[in-house]
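Figure 2 data, in text form.
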Amino acid sequence: MSGKVWLVGAGPGDLGLFTIKGMEVLKQAEVVLYDSLVGEGVLSQIPENARLINVGKRASRHTMPQEEINRLLLEEAEKGYRVVRLKGGDPFLFGRGGEELELLAEHGIPYEVVPGVTSPLAVPAYNGIPVTHRDYCSSLHIITGHKRAGERYDIDFQALVNTKGTLVFLMGLSALQDICDGLLRAGMEPEMPAAVLEKGTTAAQKRIVATVGTLPQEARRRGAKTPAIIVVGKVCALADTFAWYEKLPLAGWKVLVTRPKALISRTAAQLREKGAEVLEIPSIATIPMTGQEELKQVFGHLEEYDWLVFTSPTGVDVFFEELLRQKKDIRCLGNVRIAVIGPGTEKKLNEKGLFADLMPKIYDGDALGDVLAENVQLDTRILIPRAEKGNQNLTAKLRAAGAVVEDLPTYRTVYETSGLIDEQAAFENGEIDCVVFTSASTVKGFAERTKGLDYTGVRAACIGRQTKAAADALGMKTYMAGQATIDSLIALVEEMKRSEETWN
């Protein structure tokens, strides 16, 4: 039985511009062939169990010839796999998607095309350039600026000038001088506004606005780099007026989020709303510890405990999953009081239809131990279902107060690895501005997969004292949120960026 191929457009870079359908298809992929222009945010969404094949092309550097890519798509589909051909931008706009489908169609392989947001529209929009405007132009023309070595451009510059529309050249930065010269020879006014838009929709976005007569010199002076597009037309003059992206508080910052996969989305979404480019690369994962005899025994007499203590949202989820697994009715907790470490854990508890009886004003294990110790008596029975390696200060404080504490491991924390994105190289090249840590475990997981990195160059936004202590131990430049909440952590990242801008 043959598999199926999806040609999926990954958009111009910003994960937020990746389509819902594209994400749904990618999450079910068994084999992924991806390009070098696919944004890191999209790459981070590829399933862990998918087999990855890098077929990237950039300028004259080709990882794999197009004919070989076509053959691979066919072979993997014939083996019965769900194959995703992940392409930057849109598969059918200079993406050679048609060539890839020809061989599949010839052999009767089923396929679908998932369009992507294309850079000729998205990148100008992120730079405040409307490609059409009733007062300036009524047409848009997209042209490849790429040509084979030694060949002349197959471009009718005269026809382009006669359209009086907006012109967008893709893959043309190396030929910028030739393109501008061609337009000028065809009669375009040297004063016509024009722009080079570099790495659009990402934190490294850069805009160079000049005229057709001066753009090549200005691009050389300012060191324009690929990937970039060239926009020519009166609408380029609107860029400074309509620019919006760079006004967002975290625009220009690339932030690495290390939370476990199940918890990462809200943090990443809030950062993106503020304008950050976000890499979602969990440094830890949690594995429920099911089937243990100790677990069965404890869950067999939950009603005998006086307090149930949760130290993380994950702990809440795992506890109630185990309750369901053992077919225990939630009514067995009827007389049990519940304490939580902070608002995130409290919110997760609320989702289960329960409310906390106690939460410390400072959201960490030490503070939780202090306030709970004030509420216990001799032989008060306390159950703490949590990670295998938790903060022992909490248990010690409660036992010192006379409580009988059952410190029950319900899940194990393991370190994650990333096979697609070289975090160490990204930090060494100055590409990542900040890493967000939500626990000491995420710090340790990050350190495990970046061994050899000079951590003194890493800015770390830490949610609380234990997290900051773990980052401090590595020599990172650490900052701590005012409160141990995600909202406070996001505010901290904003403050870090403002402080950097002030010093610069």
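Caption note: The chain is about 35% helix and 20% strand.
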